[in-house]
C-alpha cells in the first residue's frame, strides 16, 4: 500500500493548531532574549529561534490561506466543531507574538521603519481578507 501525500491534501487537513508552535517558539525566543542581559550565551539561541519563528509563520500561512479559498467547507466544519474552533485564535496570536519578536529581537537586524511597514502591510492584508470572508 503506497500513500501519496499531495499538497491539496495538506491544505485540506491543515489544522490551525499548528500556529501554537509559532506562539511557543516566539514566546521562548522573547524570554531567552530578555534573559540574555544576565546570561549573554542565550542571545544567539534567541536570535536563532526568532528566525525559525519567521520561517514557521511563513510556511504555515500558505496552507492557512489556501484552506480559506480551496476547502472552505472543511474550514466551516472545523469552526463548528466544539474543540477545533478554539484553535483558530492561534494564528492571530502567533502573529502578535511574531510582532513582539520583531520589536524585541529584530530591531537589531531590521530598521524600525521596515518593521512598522511590515506590520502595517500584514494588518491591512488581514483586515481586507477578513472583510472579504465576511462578505461570503
Question: What can you tell me about this protein's structure?
Answer:
This protein is mostly helical. The chain has helices at residues 7-12, 19-35, 43-70, 72-80, 90-104, 112-135. The longest helix has 28 residues, at 43-70. The protein is globular.
What labels would you give this structure?
73% helix; mainly alpha; single chain; 136 residues
Mean pLDDT: 88
From the alpha-carbon coordinates, what is the Rg to the nearest angstrom? 17 Å
**Largest sheet properties:** none
Element string (H = helix, E = strand): HHHHHH
Taking the alpha carbons of the first and last residues, their distance comes to: 40 Å
Low-confidence stretches: none
**Structural class given helices, strands, pairing?**
mainly alpha
Count of helical stretches: 6
General form: globular
Summarize the amount of helix as a percent range. over 70%
Report the sheet-strand fraction.
under 5%
Number of beta-strand segments: 0
